[in-house]
């Protein structure tokens, strides 16, 4: 058994997003694979798993499949805002009394109460409004309306909070003015059942916006200095982004809050598995970009390749044992998702160790001033009460910070028709 909690150290914490097709396979009877005789051993949140890791994210927009986990583990509940933004939860979201809106809110509240230590506030993102189908499904068409619908949801959960679950206020926007406008519109809710933040869209996809927003939160007294607090980045897990977040987390702990936690998630491990692809290595060169390439399962049916795949799962399986006699069944997907999850956690930890050893990812090349120095100088000025100076430091390096984002490769593999017929996107 490999315990990835022991190698986490003080890095920004990657939180793998669990998908319902994967969970369904853990409880379904069916074939076994080689030495893997218990499907439950694929669940890293339980004792006796092939590897153990104490954090995961699970969406309220699931099919009712429970997420078994040990009491000491931490589940972040995703409210399903992404699905609303894709038009998959039809409702009159601006109507507080709409039956579909109330039913979905109650479902999310129950899910948070039964499963989660933290829950992402029920937001209504506007990223899908370019499509007529989405506008029709959510009965709105502008970012301003999306913000208003989100605030109504946030306030409902203030009146009817989930049991023993702290909520994270989502942050959205595109440009810095729009991110700041969103924040100013919802910050009054912080300090209630909302104890932390979940950065989405332009708040997490833009390093400049992220740093400016953190300084603004500190200036407004919303970053705690005397107790644990969680800030979560929604839907990002690039290996280079991971070390950037570690720098940010360490600077927050050094200058603002010694108990600050910063987390981030994606479902890329399951997404790649859906396409029949598996991560094969992590590349952390002294010069150039860092990455975690994947290959299709058909391309690794070679003992010279297979025996070098490092995950504890695949070290116990042959290629034929993984794919099974039917080839490409849903259990093979679950095995691939498990392997990819281990690779992603272990690879992100390896990237942080490389950073600590003095190596730097290529995405930081555009920063003329060392990124770590820049962040610490800005956060120290904020800690001293000079928030204007902190913003000046960030503003002076704005173009370099924007260049970081543009140099990080976020390309996802193309769908594979054979696997697409077995699984749907979540």
Derived from helix and strand composition plus strand pairing, the structural class reads alpha/beta
Largest sheet report: 8 strands, parallel, barrel
Percent of residues in helices comes to 40-55%
Into which percentage range does the β-strand content fall?
5-15%
Number of helices: 17
Number of strands: 12
Structure, described:
It is a single chain. By secondary structure, this protein is α/β, with parallel strands linked by helices. It has 17 helices and twelve strands. It has helices at 20-27, 81-85, 99-115, 132-138, 143-159, 176-186, 201-204, 207-219, 239-255, 268-274, 303-306, 319-323, 330-356, 371-383, 387-396, 398-407, 417-420; strands at residues 2-3, 13-18, 51-52, 55-59, 74-78, 118-120, 166-171, 194-199, 229-233, 260-266, 277-279, 294-296. Strands 2-4-5-6-7-8-9-10 form an eight-stranded parallel barrel, surrounded by six helices. α9 (239-255) links the parallel β9 and β10 (260-266). The longest helix has 27 residues, at 330-356. The protein is globular.
List the helices and strands and how they pair.
Blueprint: E1 2-3, E2 13-18, H1 20-27, E3 51-52, E4 55-59, E5 74-78, H2 81-85, H3 99-115, E6 118-120, H4 132-138, H5 143-159, E7 166-171, H6 176-186, E8 194-199, H7 201-204, H8 207-219, E9 229-233, H9 239-255, E10 260-266, H10 268-274, E11 277-279, E12 294-296, H11 303-306, H12 319-323, H13 330-356, H14 371-383, H15 387-396, H16 398-407, H17 417-420
């Amino acid at each position: 058994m490999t315990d990835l909690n022991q190698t986490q150290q003080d890095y920004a914490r990657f939180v793998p997003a669990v998908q319902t097709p994967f969970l369904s396979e853990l409880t379904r009877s069916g074939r076994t694979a080689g030495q893997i005789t218990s499907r439950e051993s694929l669940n890293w949140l339980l004792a006796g798993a092939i590897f153990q890791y104490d954090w995961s994210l699970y969406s309220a927009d699931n099919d009712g499949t429970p997420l078994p986990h040990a009491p000491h583990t931490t589940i972040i509940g995703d409210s399903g805002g992404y699905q609303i933004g894709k038009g998959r939860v039809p409702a009159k979201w601006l109507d507080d009394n709409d039956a579909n809106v109330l039913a979905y809110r109650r479902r999310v509240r129950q899910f948070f109460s039964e499963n989660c230590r933290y829950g992402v506030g029920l937001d209504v993102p506007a990223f899908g409004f370019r499509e007529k189908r989405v506008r029709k499904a959510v009965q709105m068409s502008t970012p301003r309306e999306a913000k208003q619908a989100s605030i109504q949801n946030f306030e409902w959960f203030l009146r009817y909070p989930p049991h023993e679950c702290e909520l994270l206020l989502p942050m959205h926007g595109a440009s810095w003015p729009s991110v700041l406008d969103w924040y100013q519109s919802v910050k009054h809710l912080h300090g209630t059942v909302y104890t932390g933040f979940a950065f989405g869209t332009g708040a997490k996809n833009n390093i400049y916006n992220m740093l400016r927003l953190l300084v603004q939160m500190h200036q407004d007294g919303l970053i705690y200095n005397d107790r644990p607090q969680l800030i979560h980045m929604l839907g990002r897990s690039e290996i280079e982004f991971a070390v950037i977040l570690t720098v940010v987390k360490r600077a927050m702990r050094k200058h603002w809050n010694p108990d600050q936690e910063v987390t981030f998630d994606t479902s890329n491990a399951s997404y790649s598995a859906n396409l029949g692809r598996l991560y094969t290595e992590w590349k952390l060169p002294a010069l150039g970009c860092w990455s975690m390439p994947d290959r299709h399962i058909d391309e690794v049916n070679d003992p010279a390749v297979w025996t070098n795949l490092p995950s504890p799962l695949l070290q116990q399986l042959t290629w034929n044992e993984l794919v099974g006699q039917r080839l490409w069944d849903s259990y093979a997907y679950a095995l691939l998702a498990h392997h990819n999850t281990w690779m992603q956690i272990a690879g992100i930890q390896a990237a942080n160790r490389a950073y600590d050893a003095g190596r730097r990812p290529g995405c930081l090349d555009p920063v003329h001033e060392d990124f770590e120095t820049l962040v610490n100088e800005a956060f120290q000025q904020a800690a001293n009460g000079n928030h204007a100076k902190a913003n000046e430091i960030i503003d002076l390096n704005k173009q370099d910070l924007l260049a970081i984002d543009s140099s990080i490769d976020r390309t996802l593999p193309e769908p594979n028709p054979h696997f697409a017929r077995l699984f749907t996107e979540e």
